[in-house]
Design brief:
The protein is an alpha+beta fold. The chain is built from 5 helices and 14 strands. The protein has 2 domains: about 40 residues, no CATH class; about 260 residues, Hotdog Thioesterase (Thiol Ester Dehydrase, Chain A), CATH 3.10.129.10. Strands 3, 4, 5, 6, 7, 8, 9, 10, 11, 12, 13 and 14 form a 12-stranded mixed beta sheet that branches. The chain has a two-stranded antiparallel sheet with strand order 1-2.
Length: about 300
């Protein structure tokens, strides 16, 4: 049965819960209910932070999974009055940096009123696409696709994304996203982001990743073509260190994992405009398989 915390308030005269059979586990049922309760006060939330790290396992077919490490911290929530927002975004520093304001909305938060990790990842991607649009590099309805990329059937693919969260923005809070790009060798471009408190300037989230070219037809990555380099080189910063320190190390080998979630099948709603599962959805799957004992006591701090 579904129980409410002792300090919660339950609204009466609501429909009874509905039990739905779980097709993966016929002997179990999922409960869907329209009963609501107020969560515990914010002062009771005190979680330590965990880091999400890719590892290799040797004894089963799944090659990528996660390990958690714990760092002590306390959750702080500050709700601010909402200033006028620059929601469309604008170019600053001569077009080398994109700036966009965001108000944390109710459907982007978790049960503790904090912006979800999925929402953070989606906003990072949205900033990249809006930056390309502001620069006039995006054509038609192709997200982030330059004329040269379209001619060669190329799309951007993120790999090696690193994210660090010092504090999750809360519902009603206004944050400012800064985004810029840098040259990264001969094969790709590095994307950097920060999410900052618009009132104090405090950096809440830092992220960095490598973006490479992929052919839509062969689904294989390739070197950055000279034509595409010429299209974007005026907007690439040089000699700028990654906003997140990237540690290059081999994934540790693990014989077996304690918690594995199987039977995940991408659905129609999981696909993006390139008809592949978005990176934010993969993170959802990973976190969904995380044990309750970790989710209840810790919050995600770093993704490598």
């Amino acid at each position: 049965m579904y129980s409410c915390p002792s300090n919660s308030k339950v609204w009466s005269h609501l429909p009874p819960p509905i039990f739905i059979k779980d097709h993966c586990f016929p002997s179990k049922y999922i409960m869907a209910t329209s009963r609501f309760f107020m969560p515990p006060s914010a002062s009771t939330w005190n979680k330590s932070k965990v880091s999400l790290q890719r590892v290799n396992i040797t004894s089963n077919a799944i090659q990528k999974t996660v390990r958690f490490s714990v760092i002590n911290c306390s959750l702080k929530i500050n709700l601010h009055a909402q200033p006028a927002l620059n929601v469309a975004g604008r170019l600053v520093k001569g077009g080398l940096v994109f700036q966009q304001d965001v108000s944390v909305r109710s459907f982007e938060i978790d049960s503790e009123y904090k912006m979800s990790t999925k929402a953070i990842m989606n906003y990072l991607q949205e900033a990249s696409l809006n930056y390309a649009k502001k620069l006039g590099l995006t054509i038609d309805t192709c997200f982030g696709i330059t004329p040269g990329m379209r001619k060669m059937d190329l799309v951007w693919v993120f790999r090696g994304k690193h994210i660090e969260v010092d504090r999750y923005p809360c519902w009603g809070e206004v944050v400012q996203i800064l985004h810029w790009t840098c040259a990264s060798g001969r094969t790709g471009v590095r994307f950097d982001w920060t999410i900052n408190d618009i009132n104090t300037g405090e950096t809440l989230v830092r992220a960095s990743c490598l973006a490479v070219m992929m052919n839509k037809n062969t689904r294989k990555t390739c070197k950055l073509p000279e034509e595409v380099k010429d299209e974007i080189k005026a907007y690439l910063r040089v000699d700028v260190e990654p906003i997140v320190e990237v540690f290059r190390y081999s994934c540790p080998q693990i014989d077996a994992m304690d918690h594995i979630k199987t039977g995940l099948t991408p659905g129609w709603n999981d696909l993006d405009v390139n008809y592949h599962v978005n990176n934010a959805k993969y993170l959802d799957w990973i976190l969904e398989s995380t044990p309750d004992s970790i989710r209840d006591r810790h919050e995600l701090w770093k993704i490598n």
